């Protein structure tokens, strides 16, 4: 791809303008996907990584990062130890995953291992765009893909600009969501609780005495209520809002 692409620049500016008026988080993903995919960055998300004092608070707020990778990341404890993520505690500038690996240091082997494992899920390189929140917690936009176009300064800048505005739009909508008293029905909550435990719709149906189709209906309605696209995102969002607390 050429260093400067007028069409891409136009698409990026249009995406930024549209993000400012988007009214739900699913729409945010639809707005940026056509811009980021040609850059080799078809996967993206916004996550809260660390609390105000640097404690781990890994929560995926929205995006389309592969569910299998999200589960693997959590199971492996990378939220607590990843040098790729912890770099955001030292900088407020966007940074490339590969740059953390190449910097070396005591954590280099772990960073390289995480990057190699991410590659098995189609995430071979990417960007973190740190965002310090008002409560001093650390949120970041994550952009990644199988063949990111990040060596070219123009393409990397386009990704950073669109990604940063995606994060700002997600922050705006998340703030609005926190002011809304969201409710799940008891059955939707039960389905989400079992989905959090890794149970399939068939198994959940057997546990609750309902059909898998009814389970999917409850989970679908929960997704709609929580304004997310998948059951994994619904579980994460419900946990973030404290809707699955005992």
TrEMBL record:
Domain HTH luxR-type: 177-242
Protein name listed in UniProt: LuxR family transcriptional regulator
Highest taxon in the source lineage: Bacteria
Species assigned in the record: Qipengyuania benthica
Cross-referenced PROSITE patterns: HTH_LUXR_2
Plastid in keyword set: no
Keywords: DNA-binding, Transcription, Transcription regulation
Pfam families recorded: Autoind_bind, GerE
